[in-house]
Fold these 2 entries.
Entry 1:
Amino acid sequence: RSASSALQRSIRDECGMQAAATMVLHTWNQRLGHHPHIHALVPGSGPSLDGSQWVPCRYTQATRKKPAQPFLVDNKELGRRFRGSYVRGVRRLIRAGVLEIDDLVQINAVLAEVQACDWVVYIQPPPTETSDPEDVLKYLARYMTGGPISDRRLIEVKDGRVHFWARSSDKSGRQVPVSLPTLEFIRCWTLHILPKGFTKARRYGGWSNTRQAAYQQQCEQLQPLSPSSSADLPDPLAPVPEPPSAETSDAVLKCPRCQTEMVLESHTRRPSWRELFYGPD
């Protein structure tokens, strides 16, 4: 709620348009440490505040060395608004008795400390100018499924330690092997199981449940798309068709690099978490 409130205020004041966002809570880092943060999918264009016109995406000023880039809002100001909204929310919960604090002096010192530093907000445009909406959706989908660590990052379990790949801390982006004691690995993994009834993904603004229909109608009426191009857009609420099976499909699967025909050698079904936790082993 704090992130949404800050984002809607910044978009309203700087862009003069209605805000919309889908947000996903992410609680871990590459080494399974406690690192709560939010990933948000936000449209850069949209209906104006009064719904009378379409507000196009803003761009930065192009230079000799750097072309113009899509620009949403000032990330520094957004970070300050997020920080203020979050700290005010914590204080409200303390006054209402929802958060039971044993030492008010200590919590006030903590809140004063976090208010004294900038909160990080990173705004990233689509990967390329020709990116489809599906490319951005796939990016967000990675944080909506699976657990704190994927199977491909696991290396081995040896001598009571779990070895896995993690991003290097030197900001080079390379993967380095790290390890944790087995029990510590399990403890870190289970820290990221959300409480029962907790909603991991939420939609706000124009994409909220109460406003989605009206917002979508405004976008269809105002966005500068020709009837032919809008007719070709897929319905986001339409069911996704099942991929053709190997028996019914006549298409030959080829390697995307060398175009050599590929042959399926084996197939292993990935077990569900229910099987892993409650199975015979």
Entry 2:
Amino acid sequence: MIACTGLLSGCMDMSNLPGIKPSEAKKSVVANDTAVRAEPSPIITDLQSRQSAISSSSAYGQVASAVMSKDARVAQAELQAAHLRAVAKSKNWLPSIGPSISLSSLGDLIANLVVEQVLFDNGFKKAEREFARADVEVAAVTLVEDANERVFDALSLYLDAQEGREIATMAETVLLDMRRFKWIMNERVKGGVSDGSDLNILNQKLSEIQSDQQSGLEKTSTAMAKLNAMSSYPLTDVRGLGSIGLVTQTDPLSVMRARAEQSRDIASISMDRAGSLPGIKATASGGTSKPGIGIGTTGLFDFGTKDRLAAADASKDATERKVTQAIETSNRKIESLKQKLAAERRAAEESARLTAQAKANLDLFQTQYEEGQRQVMDVVGVYETFARQQRAQTTHKYQAARLELAIAREMGALAHGGDL
């Protein structure tokens, strides 16, 4: 029976069937040597070739390695499942075999072995294979997206910890200097040279600085607690800022996802279209009943067939528009991030220049104070300006680092594709 269905599927001339073009008939004939021949997926090839813009020896690299080694890899399991489904669908051109059991009119139990082979299905089986293959591509994009998102979250926490630590360190230095100014003012008040109002102002400033220091320490401890929970080993001793190297990827991950989903949507549309048209199948049965071979049809026309076919054609156009929209949205987002990054870098450079000027003014005022030309509160005011510019420079520096990470995440450049 299996041999008969194979001969039917391989030898039947579809070009003689009414309404079927010879080119379509040639494509519809099941050929077991070509149906499962898989061409390399350009999307998966691109994902595998993606290189991380993070140096493995840098602080960023240490953090990324620690968090990726503890990843639950849910997306990887989903990718494996999609791959197995695709392997199963690659064999859908083979005959299906199963029992058929029924009761005759006399109450006898009749058991037959039925072998069914699709001869012409308007490309339904092929669309099934293409859908399963596109589903693997979507799962692969999801895997890379999840990996980049995990590294981005970890590095964002690391930057929060580093920024909090640096702010706390600066606040500690400012606090020591302000306490020295307070001691001087306290002695002046004791000697009757100054009144208590200036001393009260200094006490208030000291409280504000202590609050900033405590906020920085709390920010660091909170961020490090979250980061260590994501890591396979503690990262408390990691210090310093990393750098984002040259991003060699050409397409953002959002565009890759749109293209993979387009292929899957087109395959689904092809399946719906093929299911709306009649096909031809061969059936062979044998067992307790008389063996036989028959040819039948699958699917029938109805009054909504024309509209369903028109809807399928319109849906294909929609998939093209989705890819175009994804490219536009991604380009707009990346350009916005680049503009913000350039602005933060300019602000950091300007803050560095203003900090240098404030330090020169502070040195001048301290010299004049020691010569008796300036009051203590004059020096305190200049010192506050210097500390404020230092804080602004630090803020712009870390904000620029976050924007660099955001661009690399959008381009999928925070994890090695081959390792995933």
